[in-house]
Amino acid sequence: MDVDAGHGAALGGALPTQPGELPLTRRLRSLLTWPTSDADPVNALVRAHRSIHASADSSVLRRAYTIAENMHRGQFRKSGEPYITHPLAVAQICADLGMDTITLVAALLHDTVEDTRYTLQALAEDFGREVAHLVDGVTKFDKAFYGKAAEAETVRKMIIAAGKDVRVLIIKLADRLHNMRTLGVRSAASRERIARKTQEVLIPLCDRLGIQTLKRELDDVVLLHLEPDEHARIARHVHDRPAGWDAYLEDVVAKTRVALRRSRVDAEVAPRPRHLYSIWKDTVAGGHGAPFDLPRISIVVAGPATDCYAALGAVHGLWRPVPGRFKDFIASPKNNLYRSLHTSVRGPQDRTVEVLIRTEEMHRAAEYGVAAHYRFPRTTSRAADRADELAWLRRVLDWEQEAVDPAQFLESLRCDLAEAQIQVVADGRQVVLPAGATPVDLAYELSTERGDHCLAARVNGRLAPLSSELAEGDVVEIFTESDAESGFEADAAPRGPRREWLGFVKSPQAQMQINRWFAEHTEPGISIADKVRLGRATIGLALRTHNRGLASDLPLLRLSEELGYPDLETLLVAVFDRAVEPDAVVRQLIDLVDHRQ
Q1: What is the pTM of this model?
Q2: What DSSP element (H or E) covers 219?
Q3: Which stretches make up the TGS domain (predicted)?
């Protein structure tokens, strides 16, 4: 759907518009740039589609275009162009991705229900329920009716629709990409607002779907509108690279090919230039004054994943690897299931060179993500693997039902899609969490039941506060009330989370489940007796990490006296309230018992 942006036809050959042009000038420009030299505006779309799907039915595309053009006739974009240029461009982006015919039909019609008299029922009768579902999924809610909640409700509706058919999100991304390409005629404030929303929600969605070929362009155009000076600086750097840059990369590629042949690895080797946003991001992250842009190549092996490691050995045998710069995303894929080996080496002239190594299937998945299943239907992974790619979407749909307030849902979605994430190991599997997540976040990620009854956590073998931040690669064990010592009366213990958890949890799942619990329970706050029982249970869990236990309360009573507590109950309450760490109490307790023996 349009955001009242303006540009040319965005199908090639169109002259770029400039901010500040008069409407008449824009209209004259549109007459010069529309239609293109191709007498039939649908021809380019059909050619692109059939170049990937040779047996595709072009007649349904032409019929969809005819209806869209008729419905939008008389409507113009702010650039002065006929409105039909927008849905046609969105369909072209989908065709270039390799999407199926149904997606292209929906892309051509995606704004008709919202902006014309064409109804969803008529669309379903003309093109079927599948197309109607996709169009409905990207149709915005009426601001006049929903007011400020319209945007959040629209995003929620789109996510729910994508749960049934992910192509809804692909059309939305193509729609936003074309609008971002044509944002120049808007005011500076509007450009910044739209670019910011794109950065906060749609680019992370694109990343989760794994469609890097779209994400790269979205990243760059957002940088253009949010950081125009930095965009210009990086663009100048790329344009003005020294003459020897290309020759150096050709030398690296040639030497790499020789090394791979010697190792009997069949692979394609090519330069892999960074896009502008990627260079800017690394420049800022590293605190560099000049643009930080290392030479980079990609190796795409023709064989199985094991050949990636053979290629890695060949590269490391040719050039010395840079310590700390190796990442194995094959053994541990990213949260969008991106898989590759990343390494950096000291290449010719002792310059650092980045190397990406992947199989052909990994390469297709890295470029096209979920769209790869439509672009390469006969060569992509099985259905179970494809389902794993959308595990995050199922998780969002799970907690979406808990978010009554649409603004809360949108904020939680932004958090869930945050780029900064970590992976920890729990219950023998990898779990993805937001950066800064705590054991409580993990407990709720494992299950609502474990989150509600979380009592303690062990991180890398040591008892840790529930508020402690987890780090990449941590091995975490979650203990609940039922895991406590047999002397712990679980039935008498308070059921549910603690309010202070809301002060440190990071994940939407944890925040919503904690709020849900307190909304459903109106019991008074936790009693001193409950704190005593839970404090004793916490010490029991900590003792078990040292293969120890308590036959009676006598050692605890002696320790409470030595630590200056008036009685044992006060010590146990302090343990529960984390005024004193359980592990510290246990170490002192063991020293006390062993010393007295």
Answers
A1: 0.73
A2: helix 212-226
A3: 418-480
